[in-house]
Design a protein that fits this description.
Layout (H helix, E strand, L loop, with lengths): L1 H20 L3 H23 L9 H19 L9 H12 L1 H4 L4 H20 L1 H5 E3 L4 E3 L2 H24 L3 E3 L3 E5 H24 L9 H29 L14 H5 L2 H15 L3
Helix pairs in contact: 2-3, 2-6, 3-4, 3-6, 6-12, 8-9, 8-10, 8-12, 9-10, 10-12
């Protein structure tokens, strides 16, 4: 019972913090730059516990945070594309440094260092692509698109838990996550699709459909977020099983670490970006 109360309180503050930050572009950038840094720092600490792995925790984290700020500056129109040069320099340094560190297995260090950037830094940075967009004359900030990624993931989690508890019979991926069922996943997905169509209706009614998506396209976005969010959850579960740990950390009482909390987001955000850009091509 105590753990349930702790989880509930943490969830309330977590959701409130995420929703509130998206209402202001500066708050969004600052919060998710912090989230990016904390997640990479956690990741680096976990992999450094593996035999023959020693990545530069500080520079790897700093590089990921810089990438987030650089993406925010570039996509908001505040900085030119040259803002990415220091990030590229840091990546080059992390590669060359292994020549002089005499590590037992530098390939592992390179691999985990690059994984921190591709798996964590890049997905979080792509939130800026969803948040800032050009209307042909100026760059506008939109809280709706990035926020709906999180809302759809939360709805999916709730729907999957309820449907899985009531109807779950067939395991979705027993080797990695025995608790997930096909029934729960399908139930969560259908609930998200319904929520996406409802969001389309509301935004159309009040003239807030900034993306200009149809009901089917909104439903498609919801489905993409559900599918890739589920894969993101499974990927992090495989990561933890490989490391032999239950939680990635304990920074969030009752919810584990940063990777535990944002695992679905790390796959859902890039997928949403690809989906929305694909729609503009047809």
């Amino acid at each position: 019972m105590k753990n349930f109360v702790v989880r509930t309180i943490t969830s309330v503050f977590f959701v409130a913090g995420i929703v509130t930050c998206f209402l202001n572009p500066r708050a969004m950038v600052l919060l998710f730059a912090l989230v990016t840094g904390m997640t990479i720092w956690e990741f680096a600490g976990l992999v450094n516990n593996r035999p023959q792995v020693t990545i530069n925790r500080f520079i790897t984290t700093a590089a990921g945070v810089f990438l987030f700020f650089a993406m925010a500056g570039y996509n908001s129109g505040l900085t030119p594309s040259s803002v990415f040069i220091p990030y590229l320099v840091s990546i080059i340094y992390l590669m060359i440094a292994e020549l002089y560190l005499k590590a037992e297995d530098p390939i592992h260090n390179w691999a985990y260092t690059m994984m921190s950037q591709l798996y964590i830094a890049l997905p979080f940075s792509l939130l800026n692509v969803l948040a800032f967009r050009s209307n042909g004359q100026e760059i506008m900030y939109s809280y709706l698109t990035p926020l709906c990624v999180f809302v759809f993931l939360w709805i999916n989690d709730a729907g999957a838990y309820i449907c899985g508890s009531m109807l779950g019979r067939h395991k979705l991926f027993p080797r990695i996550s025995p608790g997930k069922s096909w029934e729960g996943s399908i139930g969560g997905g259908l609930l998200v699709i319904a929520a996406a169509v409802l969001l389309w209706h509301i935004t159309e009614q009040y003239g807030a459909n900034e993306l200009g998506l149809s009901a089917i396209e909104w439903a498609g976005l919801g489905l993409v977020i559900v599918v890739f969010g589920t894969w993101g959850d499974l990927i992090e579960s495989l990561f933890k099983r490989t490391l032999g740990i239950k939680d990635s950390g304990n920074v969030l009482p009752g919810h584990g670490g940063m990777l535990d909390r944002f695992d679905s987001t790390l796959m859902a955000v890039p997928a949403a970006v690809v989906y929305l850009y694909t729609l503009t091509l047809f």
